[in-house]
Specification:
Blueprint (H helix, E strand, L loop, with lengths): L1 E5 L3 H13 L3 E5 L10 H4 L9 E4 L9 E4 L1 H12 L7 H31 L5 H21 L12 H10 L13 H11 L2 H13 L8 H8 L3 H4 L1
Parallel strand pairs: 1-2
Antiparallel strand pairs: 1-3, 3-4
């Protein structure tokens, strides 16, 4: 059994995508990031960066004590290696998949996240910041489109690299992007969207937060006003 500490954000969806695809038994432990659940001591014990998702695996392969993992990319790698799914075993396939997983973790996710922040959440609309991150998101969509030019998925077969990238393309309209400008991304996006596991994963997210109300000032303070003192 896997305990999944989760809230329906792009990084949270990555993990439910894997767990549903792989048919792994798991239980969602909601972490309401708007309410500050990510700062509770029990959660910080397994996720010291006070960010979800995180998991606790109660049945690790070494049969020892439960294993906790934080950071969505690390969780995907851990689960893929444990279950022998969605990560090629050969050197070249494995390297390519990890490479594109890191591309999402270091590029697409952070840049799209800043795009979301300055375009939709920042109390002051800073034109330079909005253009900077909308344009960088656009560049990354172009990189993704080029990679998908001659293949169905990022590195051949469906993998953890696709599971990592897809949730960050779901809010493309909020990022100021038009999928019609990226035909290969659009084809890939629609293919993943139609997978039964994707449908189930996103439905579970909707059950937890069916409607997202406008962000309050208190939630904004919790999400975007953190310092080292907050984390401590």
């Amino acid at each position: 059994m896997i305990d999944l500490f989760y809230w329906p954000t792009p990084n949270g969806h990555k993990i439910t995508l894997f767990l549903e695809e792989a048919g792994v038994d798991y239980e969602i432990k909601p972490v309401n990031i708007g309410a500050g659940d990510q700062f509770k001591p029990d959660f910080l014990a397994i996720a010291p960066n006070n960010r979800m998702p995180a998991i606790v695996d109660h049945n690790p392969v070494d049969r020892g004590d439960p294993v906790s993992v934080f950071e969505s990319g690390a969780i995907l790698l851990y689960l893929a290696e444990k279950h022998g799914k969605f990560l090629p075993r050969d050197l070249r396939g494995r390297t390519a998949t990890i490479q594109w997983l890191m591309w999402q973790m270091g590029g697409l996710g952070p840049m799209a996240g800043q795009n979301h922040h300055f375009s939709h959440y920042a109390p002051e609309k800073i034109d330079y910041a909005i253009k900077r991150y909308v344009n960088e998101t656009n560049r990354l969509y172009g990189v993704l489109d080029k990679q998908l030019e001659d293949r169905a998925f990022l590195t051949g077969d469906y993998s953890i690299a696709d599971m990592a990238a897809y949730p960050w393309i779901v809010p493309h309209e909020n990022q100021g992007q038009n999928l019609d400008d990226f035909p290969n991304v659009k084809r890939w996006f629609e293919k993943i969207k139609a997978r039964p596991a994707t449908i189930i994963a996103y439905a579970k997210g909707s059950e937890i937060q069916a409607v997202r109300p406008p962000m309050t000032d208190e939630e904004r303070k919790i999400l975007f006003g953190q310092t080292s003192k907050t984390a401590a």
